[in-house]
UniProtKB/TrEMBL annotation:
One biological process term in Gene Ontology: carbohydrate metabolic process
Domain Alpha-L-rhamnosidase C-terminal: 252-321
The name this protein goes by in its record: alpha-L-rhamnosidase
Key words of the record: Hydrolase
Catalytic activity: Hydrolysis of terminal non-reducing alpha-L-rhamnose residues in alpha-L-rhamnosides
Organism taxonomic ancestry: unclassified sequences, metagenomes, ecological metagenomes
Naturally occurring in which organism (per UniProt): bioreactor metagenome
GO molecular function term, any single one: alpha-L-rhamnosidase activity
EC number: 3.2.1.40
Matching InterPro entries: 6-hairpin_glycosidase_sf (IPR008928), 6hp_glycosidase-like_sf (IPR012341), Alpha_rhamnosid (IPR016007), Bac_rhamnosid6H (IPR035396), Bac_rhamnosid_C (IPR035398)
All residue ranges annotated as the Alpha-L-rhamnosidase six-hairpin glycosidase domain in the record: 1-250
Length: 331
């Protein structure tokens, strides 16, 4: 939820305090809708009975009916994430009673998800890319079954020849779900795929903005005619969420404390990239990262005053540094 993201980025506890009641009301609304009786069957602590969900909206090669049908599989992952954010917010604000209550609710959701949604080998009921991406990213899958789920996601990605198959729900998380679970090169191949649908396909097609539909423009240059006209926007942010992966995995910048008072830099190189460079403007100043790789891996790092950076290099070497500029080189 937005207030938690803002607090995490800027460390503004007063803002989080002011928005807490609205966050709590939103979570309660989710839980209320998820737990109402249904003629179609309902498992307690799962959001599986809403008559309408946008689901995996705009997943390529599918239409409205298929997108919305996937909602019954995806909704619980997002509800669990909302409850988890509220738990963390309550902890940050010292609201112990709320933290305990929603922590118990989260445990119940995770137990129900494992019982009803995960097969013994780690595959999910609802065998599609976004379902695995969201369940893995939001930590709904227990450690003992995570490898099986990640393997199945990688197999789905490979079977689709590294063409993206996620809609709005799964796209922000699929690269994380792969890279964080042992499939770094699969994540990079998915990211760097130039065929339709894919991020670089839009670049090759001349796109200077992200599109609403992966396949809004066909490979022969024609605009698709089998879709609702106002759903073929060529300036639509959703798939631009991949930028989060650029910062948090390619550059490796992660806030360890609100406002980046302490942060980690753990670059994950892969694919055909030989270098990456970027900076982030925190409340303490600009932190910048650049890395290059050939026979060796070299990291250039600038740490703002008043912060601490925990550096994790690709070979596992770690360092903790404060204000200043640094260069690290490993084989």
């Amino acid at each position: 939820m937005v207030p938690w993201a803002v607090y995490h980025a800027y460390g503004d506890l007063e803002m989080l305090q002011n928005q807490y009641d609205s966050m709590k009301a939103y979570v309660e609304a989710e839980l209320r809708v998820a737990n109402r009786p249904s003629l179609f069957g309902h498992k307690k602590f799962l959001w599986d009975n809403n008559p309408f969900q946008y689901g995996d909206w705009c997943a390529p090669g599918e239409g409205f009916s298929k997108w919305t049908q996937k909602g019954k599989y995806l909704s619980t992952s997002f509800m669990a994430n909302s409850v988890n954010i509220l738990c963390q917010s309550a902890r940050a604000l010292g609201r112990q009673e709320d933290e305990e209550r929603y922590s118990e609710m989260l445990r119940n959701i995770l137990k129900a998800f494992e019982r009803y949604c995960i097969l013994p080998d780690g595959r999910l009921k609802g065998d599609f890319q976004s379902n695995y991406a969201c369940a893995l990213y939001f930590n709904l899958i227990p450690d003992g079954k995570k490898a099986g789920a990640a393997h199945r996601l990688a197999m789905l990605v490979r079977a689709n020849d590294y063409r993206i198959a996620t809609g709005f729900a799964g796209t922000p998380y699929i690269l994380f779900a792969l890279a964080d679970n042992g499939y770094v090169e699969d994540a990079y191949r998915l990211l760097q795929n130039e065929k339709c649908p894919g991020w670089l396909y839009t670049v090759k097609a001349g796109g200077t903005t992200t599109w609403e539909r992966w396949d809004a423009l066909a490979e022969d240059g024609s605009i698709r005619t089998d879709a609702i006209p106002d759903m073929i926007s060529f300036n639509h942010y959703a798939y631009g969420a991949v930028g989060d992966f650029f910062y948090r995995r390619i550059l490796g910048i992660e806030a360890s404390a609100p406002g980046y008072e302490r942060f980690t830099v753990k670059p994950i190189p892969g694919g055909t990239l030989t270098y990456a460079e970027g900076n982030l403007k925190s409340r303490y100043g600009s932190l910048s990262v650049r890395w290059e790789r050939d026979e060796t891996f070299t990291l250039h790092l600038t740490v703002p005053e008043g912060t601490v950076c925990d550096v994790v290099l690709p070979n596992g070497e770690t360092n903790s540094v404060s204000y200043g500029s640094y260069v690290f080189t490993v084989n």
